[in-house]
Structures are given as C-alpha cells and as structure tokens.
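Exercise 7.
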Amino acid sequence: MPGAGETASRARWAAVIVAAGESRRMGRLKPLLPFGEHTVIEQAVAVARDSDLSPLVVVLGHEAERIGAHLPADARPAFNADYREGGMFSSVCRGIREVLGTAAGVVLFVGDNVTLTPEVVVSLRSAWETEGRPRDRFYIPTFEGSWGHPVVITADLLPMVLEWCGERGLRGVMEAHTGQITEVPVLESGIGLDIDTPEDYARALAWLEARQG
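Solution. The predicted structure, written as tokens, is:
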C-alpha cells in the first residue's frame, strides 16, 4: 500500500546523491569536472531529475560551498560534517535522514557515477511495481551479473540502514540481508563506472562521446 502523501497511481521515490568525498585518487575535485554540457555533479542531478524523483537531495562535505554553488535550485544540499571520519556510509545516512518518512523509496546515487541514464531507474521502478510495491526490499541494477548504481532502498528498510553497526557500510547491510534484494538486469555497462581516477574519467568521457555519436 502506498504511504501517506502517495497516490495510488504514482508512489513517490526520493533521490539521494552522495558527493561529499575528497577526490584524493582523482587529484582534482570530481564533482566540478566537466562532463558534456554539465559538470559531473550537474549531470548526476539531471539524471535524478529526469527519472522523476523528488526531492533531490545532494549530500556535501569536502568543498561544500564550491560544489553547492553549482547545484540547481531544485536540488537540496545536505551537509555531512562527518564525511572525513565517517566515510561514504555516513553520507548515505545523512541523505536518508533528510528524506526519511517522505517517500516510498530512496534512490541512492553515487555522485561520480555519471554513466547511467534515467532508463535504469525506470527498470528498477518497473521491478518494484511488478513485485507489488513492497516496502522491505533493496533493488540493485546488474550488468553481466555485477552490481551497479543506483541502489533503491524501500521505506521500511531505511531505519535498518541507519541503525547498521557492521562493516562495509551499505554493501554490508545488503550482504546481511540478501533475501531482501531484487537484482534487476540492465543492458547498460555504465552502471558500474565510478570516476575515481583520471583513467576512469577518460572512460566516462569516451562513454559520453559514444552515446552522443
């Protein structure tokens, strides 16, 4: 059943985009690297927007003011003061707290994974609809058997994620609850490419050029 504030025809999903890291392996501030007509962070927000997600929350930490200046008006910044000591999982939890209780599911994007499209989110949502809109499942896209981005966390699992005290962050949560995971095969290899190094960035730019060509 859709929760409060949801219509019977269209239950709302929220977007949480994690962009708080220090870009150490890249050597440059990843969110502000150019990517087509956008910066990397602008591209991530555009994909979330085009996926019909609301609200759009962007978790910031390192260089928050510089990155925040590039966010569009419909993106809500959320600062994670613990980004350095707490790592990425602390940013995931910061974003979840921002939208807790407001949506049937949270679509978790990694801010440097720009080689995905709204069609991936459509596939995840279709799987959720087919399974009857459960409130206690994870949805993960896969390409050739490997997990990718983004991850969908439905409403009843969000408190469990916030309470997790184990290792490996969100992946540790999911590995401890494999029976609640739906894997959704997609045809887009870009779900697995994060821009962590200059070589990754070059691959992402090649993906974009091939897609535009």
